[in-house]
Please model this.
Amino acid sequence: MEPAATAEPILIEQAPAASGLRPNILSPTETLAQSISAIAPTTTPALTIPLVFALAGNGTWLAYAFAMGAVLLIAFCISRFARHKSGPGSLYLYATSSLPPLASGVAGWALLLAYTITGASVSGGFILFANILLVQMTGHAVNAALLGSICVVACTWIAYRDVQVSAELMLWMEVASVVAILIVMVLLLWRHGLHFDHAQIGLHGVKASGVRLGVVLALFSFVGFESATALGDEAINPLLTIPRAVVRSAFFAGLFFIGCAYLETFGMAQAHDNLGTSPAPMHVLARLVGIPWLGWVIDVGALVSMFAATLGCITAAARVLLRMASDGIAHPALARTHHKNATPHLAVLLIGLVMLLPVAILAARGVSGADIYGWLGSLAVYGFLTTYGLACIGLPLYLRRVHTLSNGTVALSIGAAVAILLALAGTLWPVPDPPYNWLPYFYLVYLALGVGWQLWATRKHAIA
Model:
């Protein structure tokens, strides 16, 4: 799944070895694992697809198909950049190569919030599934703030120690999680036969407005697919492996989500249950195929996927912060790497602390793990959409500067930008209920503070 124009010359602009990260240690599979873990595919069948179904009904699979198309447009844009440049800092690095300093600073702050708050969000999911399993096994729940702290602290320690260990753990965690869900889906097909669900294919009872809102929510399932770009110094042959990881993670995640959306909708109809209101749809489906204990296996898989996603977000966010510190936007100490582990240890520790605070505070105030997941995840999406949009705008500017711009790339960038604008509009209108209606204002205040800090730091450096 590469863009059609693959014959253009590759301009190698590697990040300096002075970054201090260990070069050429991550295989293509481990690089792909970074993006897959950040997506956290297991969470979508368990948490997100039921929410999309509540909006789109029998058009849930179609909402995910549209979302996949939009994400692939963005992925192709990012992969074009990734074939030219690599280094720690992910999309922020691409923005600094083509956009004015202020716009690239916005990209950095937006992406930093996106990864950090996504990690906090999936820690809320970790709390949810951990207590589901604990109640089943012991009859008692554990303090939510304690569970969230265990998740974030453990992931911070792993990311502090070794990026290669992190990548391997993320890979196997996600493989185990996805396999458990696929077993249920395959058994569902086997028990009920290979035939079309006419209610879904015919879009019975589906409204266009419901599918539109469902597409916006479905896009939330994909965020983080680009996080392999943060490993530009550590991946083997990054100008080849990272573009492939970006596109492949979006493509395979999309196929998985569409398949799960279709089969979950079909299976819940067979069980005479409502997917949009069921508290545990995977348990219902596991009972339907005659293996009820698989529902608990999937819960374990979801728990593991949440942990892996937290780890993936810390790994990516720390490298964005390292790059920003190297550029003078963040404190210079955050650009240091550990003398033995060759990880951005100070950046990892700071990201872990910032990630822990909202989880611990919200959990201590009695907010459920599901609400932590929903609230913080919705906030993180604004950061991702901002950065995706700036990358799509910056791509043709960069390629024109290096004399490789084509009409196809311009069309690709325009298509991706339009998809992002439509997604952003869908998060703002109709106006959501509290606290979701306050999230755009919180995000704008955060960006204003970040840009203000950048302007102050730039002025201070110029005076010095």
Notes: Residues 54 and 78 are 32 Å apart (CA to CA). The chain has one domain: 25-454. The radius of gyration is 21 Å. The beta strands are 13-14, 85-86.
